[in-house]
Write a structure and sequence with these properties.
The chain is α+β, with helices and mostly antiparallel strands and 266 residues long. It folds into two domains: 109 residues, no CATH class; 130 residues, Alpha-Beta Plaits, CATH 3.30.70. Helix 5 packs across helix 6 and helix 7 packs across helix 8.
Length: 266
């Protein structure tokens, strides 16, 4: 049996008022039932959090009076603060912001229905944290940078601008497509190079979609809690393979949002 199973459920902490504890439940995360809650956890609207357990797993929840929570800054901050406090002593499976169950019994039914999958995911990420790594091109004009790096793109651009006539829309589109292909190819090549070094350091990576044209890669990295310093050294090692046109920025630790899959509450 896994080291993370529990034979008994720990007593809950930071109980909300009885009227909220029995009504709608805002869900922050799923943890092992044996995991203790932080001593001073306060969530949405300052309401304390508690555990709703079913077998060896439990939901971290807080009572809410309404069926919907608006994504206001204070609510988002409270949600993240609970996850941050949980992460200090365990590895929670984070729930999506705004997940609300009608009652504690609905939460138990959800945990019972998906218990095996949730337990397996908890065991997989136990003792780990998520780190983010973003690499970007630090250049003033990404198209001109690629023109200078890729002869075929430079020749296509020069042909487009040569002569007295104006280029057609189709010709402009074709050059744009060539640039996009080269952009994606370079991203893939650079990402593979970085992931290879991180993998050698025992880091599991997941590549997320780049959110800006200058962004080379946006990696979510699953790292052993006690090997965060080694992760940082691996990032430095990877950065040494790139020139001054690239910047590396990593952040964390976070709950492993990118490495868990929780079914919608039903």
């Amino acid at each position: 049996m896994s080291d993370y199973t529990a034979s008994a459920v720990m007593a809950p902490y930071n109980e909300p008022p009885p009227e909220l504890a029995q009504g709608r439940q805002y869900l922050y995360a799923v943890i092992f039932a044996s995991d203790r809650l932080p001593e001073a956890s306060a969530g949405i609207d300052g309401v304390g959090v508690h555990k709703i357990a079913e077998g060896h797993i439990a939901a971290v929840a807080g009572g809410v009076p309404t069926p919907k929570i608006r994504p206001e800054r204070r609510h988002l901050a409270a949600h993240q603060e609970v996850l941050k406090q949980l992460l200090a002593s365990s590895t929670p499976l984070p729930m999506s912001f705004g997940t609300i169950a009608d009652s504690p019994e609905a939460v138990r039914q959800f945990l019972s229905k998906h218990g095996t999958a949730l337990f397996d995911q908890l065991a997989r990420v136990a003792g780990k944290v998520e780190m983010g790594l973003r690499v970007s091109w630090e250049v003033s004009n990404i198209f001109e940078y690629f023109v200078n790096k890729h002869t075929d793109l430079r020749q296509a651009r020069d042909h487009l601008l040569a002569g007295p006539r104006h280029p057609t829309q189709d010709e402009k589109i074709e050059v744009g497509r060539m640039f996009e292909r080269l952009l994606q190819d370079d991203r893939a090549r650079h990402t593979e190079k970085v992931e290879r070094i991180l993998a050698a350091a025992g880091v599991e990576c997941k590549a997320n979609k780049s959110r800006a044209e200058r962004e080379v890669m946006n990696l979510a990295c699953l790292v052993e809690r006690d090997r965060q310093e080694a992760f940082g050294l691996a990032v430095v090692q990877a950065a040494q393979l790139f020139d001054h046109d690239f910047t590396f920025d990593y952040n964390g630790p976070w709950a492993p949002h990118n490495f868990v899959e929780i079914e919608p509450l039903s």
